[in-house]
Structures are given as structure tokens and as C-alpha cells.
Amino acid sequence: MALDELRALLARHARPDQTTAIDDVLISAVEQPEPPSSSTSGTVLALIARGAKRLALGDRVYEYRAGQYLIASVDLPVTGHFTEVPAIGFGLILRPRMIAELLLEAAPGDLPPAAGGTPPALAVSTASGDLLDAVIRLLRLLDHPRDHAVLAPMLKREILWRLITGDQGSVVRQLGLADSSLTHVARAVGWIRDHYSQAFRVEEVAQLSGMSVSAFYRNFQAVTAMSPIQFQKQIRLQQARLLLATHPNDVAGVSHRVGYDSPSQFSREYRRQFGAPPSQDATRLRDRPPGAALV
């Protein structure tokens, strides 16, 4: 059975840092239950071979389990955890350039019709037999290092092609289209992430992303499940928590560095996000075992 071989390959090559000897190929293995943690999604294919996972983005919740995959087409702040353990899964970082190349090479009629509207940044589907087969053949290369340079790029292209022509093809294809609404939103997301501590006018970011204000609001909400200001707040709070992990006694300074003018507002929003006020959470972060994850 395909999932049995997939589990065996993933278990054999899993590393603590999730990386593998093949660029952009990741393996995630979790043995014990963990509370939900905040992170960024990356642009990735995530396929579960054992267990189940739940992700929250804004007011949307996504769940997927063994034999299903999640596509993340924009790097967004998410909260997630494995709901069934032990769990193990395969990840492939999605590169827009590779997707664009496949779209250019496709013959007329090879691609299914594009879905209407702007697709959300996250989408879940059941993996086809062809997709599982391509992933398994890519993972088999981990046992044959001399084949990586020649065969791995070919198999990554096959996996991307299965995605492009699969259930979530519209989401994946937009990653490779320079003028897609998803690409415009991703441009805005990148700008807000790089300038998260600065106040901004939505009109200015809409202009930077190449959309009218009304189209920007509509597409940003469709992709991220958040308004631009809500998205900025998520980035600020995640960055604040990272800073508190190394500066646990400087709550006021961290608050100011991430862009809050009001310490009380920072404390209120931080507690709502992480379940404890900054000072208490900072103590917990300071006392955590070396190398432990922020959860």
C-alpha cells in the first residue's frame, strides 16, 4: 500500500530539524501531543502519512489527516498542532519559478479551467494515487545520494504537475502567474511583514500591490482570512514573542519595538493571542528547556 511505503521512507529519513538531503524536501515527525503553536506557513505542500493536523488562519480552520495534503500558497501567520499522534508527513517548498516554467511548457488544453474568484491561501485535498507515487519515488532517492542532482528536479516537477492539474490546481497555478490576484496579495503580505512595526494606510499598500483599494480589501480577505490591519497585528505579536524569548525582562521595550504605542493594548492583545500576559509568558519562555519549541 502506498501510504505504508510512504510512512516507512519518512520514518527512516526524519531529522530533528525537518530537513533532508534533497533541497526543499522536508519531513516532520511528532511523537507526543503538543499544544497549538503559532508559526508562519511558508509556501508549501504538506502531505500527512500518519496522524492528523489542524491549522487556524484568521477565522478559518483546516484539518487534514493521513492521505490528505494541504497547500499553502502565501506565507501567513497560522496556529496549528497535530490532533492525532504519532504523526509524520512530507513537505515540499513551492517555488513560483518552477510553477511558472511548467505553466509555460503546458500545451493548450492540458490545464483544467481556472476557478473563478481569488482562491484562499490554504486548501486541503485528498492525495491522488499519482501524487503519492511521485512523492514516494522522490523519497526513495534519499537512499541513493548520487541520483539527487539529476533525478530530484525531475520528480519535483512531476509533483508540481500533479498539483497544478489536481483539485487545488487553481491555488497552485496562481503562484506561478506574475499578475494573479494571489501574487498581488503576496506582494502586500511581504511588505507588511517587512514593515510590521510601522503604521500604514491601506490605500498605500493597495497601490504598492497594484490593486484598487476595494479590490485589495476583497482579495486580501479572501486569501488571508484577515484584514490588512489584523494581519499586521498577528505578525507583531509573533515577533514580540520571539523577542521575549531572548529579552524576557524587557516587556515594555519589546512592545515598543514591534510597533505598539500603548503597553496596555499590547498586553491585552498578547494575552488574547497566547493565553498569558507578556510578563508571565516571558517567564515561561525563559524557563523552557534548551531547544524546546515556543508553544
TrEMBL record:
Stored InterPro entries:
Homeodomain-like_sf, HTH_AraC, HTH_AraC-typ_CS, Tscrpt_reg_HTH_AraC_N
Q: Which Pfam families match?
A: AraC_N, HTH_18
Domain of life according to the entry:
Bacteria
Record-linked PROSITE patterns: HTH_ARAC_FAMILY_1 (PS00041), HTH_ARAC_FAMILY_2 (PS01124)
Question: Which part of the chain is the HTH araC/xylS-type domain?
Answer: 186-284
Gene3D superfamilies in alphabetical order: Homeodomain-like
Full protein name: AraC family transcriptional regulator N-terminal domain-containing protein
